[in-house]
Design goal:
The structure is a homodimer. Chain A is α/β, with parallel strands linked by helices. The first copy, chain A, has one domain: Acetylglutamate kinase-like (Carbamate kinase, 3-Layer(aba) Sandwich), CATH 3.40.1160.10. Helices cover about 40% and strands about 20% of the residues of chain A. In chain A, strand 4 and strand 5 form a beta hairpin. In chain A, helix 6 packs parallel to helix 8. In chain A, about 50% of the residues are buried.
Chain lengths: ~260, ~260
């Protein structure tokens, strides 16, 4: 079983202020999944331009100032969920058009966070859907939180690593719009090198310009390195490149960063 | 707290073969809910023309004949869910337009049935949403089943009575397209009388023409009578009549059938 995270920047036009689907990518990506040899798969997708503008506008996850602010945030929570659910519906339709039995599972209906980290989630149903050869499709969503913030934004990344810990997939694949992890910010340094393999936190942290500051990739890598300690390897690939996703689902090598144990052979 | 069931025949054009929303009713009903004095409310809605054609076509809940049939049913399950989720999104949008903080909760992501009856459902999150003054909105959906049928259609009615048992609302309201329960089939017998109060199963079962055969109302009544034994009263009203829903939410008397204990005063 593989857990595939589809980044919000791949499936939506993330730079847009209003929800905008990347139909071209979605069509191609759905076809690549269908054409691959993968049988058991969980898909988690980001919210991209469907989630971020709302979550930001209503400051979901920030401290609640007063009862007026709470009311406003509750409204924003409802609107944010509506938008990400809409994106999820569109994605599942693309998958279904390829004959993939996509089954959406709404995170906000069964996941609770504590200070923005998943506290509880009953994943027995996800397992059941998988056993029946559905393709469960989860997504970045807003969820209730046990702390005074009461509400939190739950990223697709966090769902991915949570599910990986619980379900022990063979691999985790992060389909993004970049080639992988670089030793420096490639936008700033033309001589930045793509790290084909990352085996430990030290490799990342010793770099002067960590990927943390170059678009949030650092946080992802740290979570993937935590997974590696549980024996779960992961790959970061550029899904904007045609057939990259199909190949990596098939176990073929593509340009990207693999997070794996060092091979001492 | 009140649990309000919106019948599929009220919010959709149920006679249609293809999903068709009753926009006029939805707009009016949303306004009536907003104009009422109700604070804590759970809404459960039926699937109407969004669910039944698919569920029927793919015979979800019927015996699975072979692996081909299973594949077909899995596809049908995914399609049926997509359709009811779409209806739910539309309903929640109408509610939000009235300023009602509707929060959809996907039954198929946290409810499991055993031979078509709810076996397990974690309702802690529903309680949390209620406590925060969201209006949780659930709906008739397809769900996984533990028996060899593997998949089942879960009606909004069953969700309603399940939640009522667990959450002990003050009242349960069934908003339908008929005035209530009659002593005979009103379509067949012009002298049929509306039963304003039903207090026991005997009252229904002694009738020659039970409502069971006149459109599934009998099954509903039996479930509501079971709730009455737990002390939960319920009302069946005609939500096609303007202001009926608003009045009944406010505790006013409208034409309809009340399922309540006999008053010996």
């Amino acid at each position: 079983m593989i857990i595939l995270k589809l980044g919000g920047s791949v499936i939506t036009h993330k730079e847009e202020d209003t929800p905008t689907v990347n139909h071209e990518n979605l069509k191609r990506i759905s076809r690549e999944i269908r054409e691959s040899s993968i049988q058991k798969l969980i898909i988690v997708h980001g919210a991209g331009s469907f989630g971020h503008p709302y979550a930001k506008k209503y400051a979901i996850g920030d401290e609640i100032k007063d009862s007026e602010d709470l009311k406003r945030k509750i409204r924003g929570f409802s609107l944010t969920h509506h938008a990400v659910n809409e994106l999820n519906s569109i994605i599942c339709e693309y998958l279904r058009m390829q004959g993939i039995p996509a089954m959406p599972l709404q995170p906000s209906s069964f996941i609770l966070t504590q200070n923005k980290r998943i506290q509880s989630a009953d994943i027995r149903l996800i397992k059941k859907y998988l056993d029946m050869e559905f393709i469960p499709v989860l997504y970045g969503d807003v969820v209730l939180d046990t702390e005074p913030i009461k509400m939190a934004v739950l990223s697709g990344d966090q769902i991915t690593t949570y599910l990986a810990r619980k379900l022990k997939p063979e691999r985790v694949i992060l389909a993004t719009d970049v080639d992988g992890i670089y030793d420096k910010n490639p936008k700033k340094y033309p001589d930045a090198l793509l790290l084909e393999i990352v085996t430990s936190k030290e490799e990342i942290e010793t770099e002067e310009t960590t990927v943390d500051v170059t678009g949030g990739m650092g946080g992802k890598v740290n979570e993937l390195l935590d997974l590696l300690e549980l024996g779960i390897e992961s790959e970061i690939i550029n899904a904007n490149q045609k057939n990259n996703l199909k190949k990596v689902l098939n176990g073929e090598k593509v340009t990207g960063t693999t997070i794996k144990k060092r091979n001492y052979k």
